[in-house]
Structure formats: structure tokens, C-alpha cells
Amino acid sequence: MMEADSVGGNAPRHTPNANVAREGHFDGKVIVPDEPVQLPVGQRLQVHIELAETPSARHADLLGFAADLPDAPPDLAAQHDHYLYGNPKR
Questions:
Q1: Are 55 and 67 in contact (CB under 8 A)?
Q2: Residues near 47 by Cβ (< 8 Å), separated by ≥ 6?
């Protein structure tokens, strides 16, 4: 949305949509959006935290399948980032 600058005359300035909801996760240090967000680096934000339902219904089938894998490590659920991405175990 573009609007006229009330101080400098008719020079337009960009006004972003102020109410955008995004899903994300907390990595132990910072909140990370699950999808890319188009914002300038350093853009100040006001963040409202709302806990998501866990586990979500859309993942219930996958979790059930993973629990039935005969060769799965016993800590697969807790250490999935290690097994999927090679991250250090927590």
C-alpha cells in the first residue's frame, strides 16, 4: 500500500501489511519462521507469541508410521534433527 507522506508533501512511502501471521519454531535461542519472510534486514517488528497445537493432526499419520519402524533408533522422536540433518544431539 502506498500513501502520501504527510510531512514532505506528495512523496509516496511504502506501508506494509501490519498483520501477517506466520508459523515458526523456537530453536532454543531465537524464533525461526517456517517459511521465508520478505522483510528488510533490521526491520523492527512487534511479535505476539501463540503456542501451536502439538503434534498437529496433519503429522499424526507420519508419527504413527515412524513409531512402527523396526530399525528406528529409540530416540528418533527426540533427536529427529540429528538423524535428518546431522545436527548434534541435544
A1: no
A2: 31
Rounded to whole angstroms, the Cα distance separating 24 from 55 reads 14
Give residue for cell 531465537. Answer: 30
For 35-80, the pLDDT digits (tens) are 998 889 999 999 899 888 765 566 677 777 766 788 888 888 788 8
Strand partners, 31: 26
Strand partners, 25: 32
**Which cell numbers hold the place of 74?**
529409540
Instruction: Output 5 or 40, whichever has higher pLDDT.
Output: 40
- Show the cell assigned to 2: 502506498
Contact (Cβ atoms closer than 8 angstroms) between residue 16 and residue 4: no
Question: DSSP letters of 6-47?
Answer: TTTSS-EEE---S-----EEE-SSSEEESS-----TT-----
